[in-house]
Amino acid sequence: MSVDKLRKLTPVLLVVATAFAVGACGGAEDTKDAAAGSSGGDGGKTLSLVAFSTPQVVYDEVIPEFEKTPEGEGVGFKTSYGGSGDQSRAVEAGLKADIVHLSLEPDVTRLVDAGLVSGNWQSEAKDGVIADSVVAFAVRAGNPKNIQDWDDLLKPGVEVVTPNPFSSGGAKWNLLAGYGAKGDLGKKPEAGLDYLRSLMTEHVKVQDKSAREALQTFLGGQGDVLLAYENEAITAQKKGEEIDYVVPSSSLLIETPIAVTNDAAPEAKAFLQYLLSEPAQTKFAEWGYRPVDKQVYEANKSRFKQPADGIFTMAELGGWEKLNTELFDPEDGSVAAIEEEAGVSTAS
User: Is the CA virtual torsion 348, 78, 261, 16 positive or negative?
Assistant: First the structure.
């Protein structure tokens, strides 16, 4: 086999190997049985939940509550948390999943294309979404560098932490928020890309694999600003971390998709319905997510900071199908070119 062919095969082989390692030890980044020490729910069904890294704190509380319901009686869980792109590729490569809760739509689309998730997955939940957030700036306590808006990230001496967009869905949301805010919601794409180029090549010093790892890097003392989900900043504060956070004047609505797989156990849909219930949606709100249930959102609205100039959506920017290719294609995408200039890997 030629060296070139081996190079092309290596990422695929690594994903397959990762999937089987995940299946053997339980998770890509952080995996555990969530049924009070039982993986089988007292002899009943075991559901495999594969999710991106940040909602683990919610599921740690929601799963036990579901198990107390008639629909959840005797149901056990195995959970896996990690970077959204990595999780999606692992499921594609063979990691068992009854339910996937990922950071962004293209990671579910990959599973649709692989025949693992139905093409009408968006008919479930609220258009396929279980919880929302917005892109925020986590800053040091007291905000010593007075970071308030997107331009402040480019001030001399400001160091920014954000995950790698080629492994983390959260990173894609972060960069798209800056791209949209500084590029007139996609109407001035070159202005948006110029902003990202300055940010990524001059100010971002660390790019971890997942949003959770990036948070730990920031909490460990690196960087002045962390680009993050608003819920991650709220969760950190709730856990006693001495950080503040700012929502910039214009931010992007983060819609996190959820789907049951084609061969999922029947209990998976019951769990999905429970996630849309008032108690579960309230748990999401308590950990900083914006509930998709309107009544629960209104009851918890005071928990969230509202951008002065509003929140825009992926639909307004042009949609995932368009932008995921134009910006994040590993070989031809505009962000891939910026990452190459910054000396950062775009390998999946």
Answer: positive
Question: 17 pLDDT exceeds 60?
Answer: no
pLDDT at 26 over 90: no
Q: Helix 189-202 to helix 169-182 angle, to the nearest 10 degrees?
A: 130
Range 3-131+255-303 classified under CATH 1.20.1250.20? no
**Do the Cβ atoms of 271 and 66 come closer than 8 Å?**
yes
In whole angstroms, how far apart are CA 239 and each of 64, 219, 227, 234, 243?
Answer: 20, 12, 19, 9, 11
How many other C-beta atoms lie within 10 A of the C-beta of residue 264? 20
Cβ–Cβ < 8 Å for 201, 344: no
Count the Cβ atoms, other than its own, within 10 Å of residue 343: 7
Give yes or no for a contact between 170 and 255, defined as CB atoms under 8 angstroms apart: no
pTM score: 0.85
Residues comprising the chain, all counted: 348
Helix (H, G, I), strand (E, B), or coil: what is residue 166? coil
Beta-strand pair 290-291/160-161: unpaired
CATH (residue range 133-253+308-342): 3.40.190.10
Strands (E), 187-276: 204-206, 225-229, 243-246, 251-260
pLDDT at 190: 97
pLDDT tens-place string over residues 33-67: 333 333 345 556 999 999 998 899 999 999 999 99
- State residue 57's pLDDT score: 95
